[in-house]
Amino acid sequence: MNLDPDKLVVLFVxxxxxxxxxxxxxxxxxxGRWMAEVRKYTSAIQGELHGVxxxxxxxxxxxxxxxxxAMAEPRAALDVGAREVRSSFDAGSxxxxxxxxxxxxxxxGPAAGASAPPVTARVPPAAVPxxxxxx
Length: 135
Prior knowledge:
Layout: H1 5-90, E1 102-104, E2 119-121
Antiparallel strand pairs: 1-2
């Protein structure tokens, strides 16, 4: 709630007109006490939550950090492999070291009695992600 001085003056004038000069100080004191009680209770609840959830939060954070550090090396290896695959596709081959298109099937030609040739396809570079998703 953002109250600038102009709004506070207008609020004070309205309260003065509605409550009158005799009741305004009493109502203001009562409102101040209520606000103090609300702050006290919310502070107590917040403290209890930190006390109850503090240790599990620390353990969870430690496990997360341990997992991230354990996954750093495999992630780096996957990144290197993805870059190699991408560069081989960019160079016109389907897999590192093959030098040719990707052939589905045995590549020996149509099966006995079948007239369809083997299916060949090139995988577009966008199909190989830079980030394998270990964030």
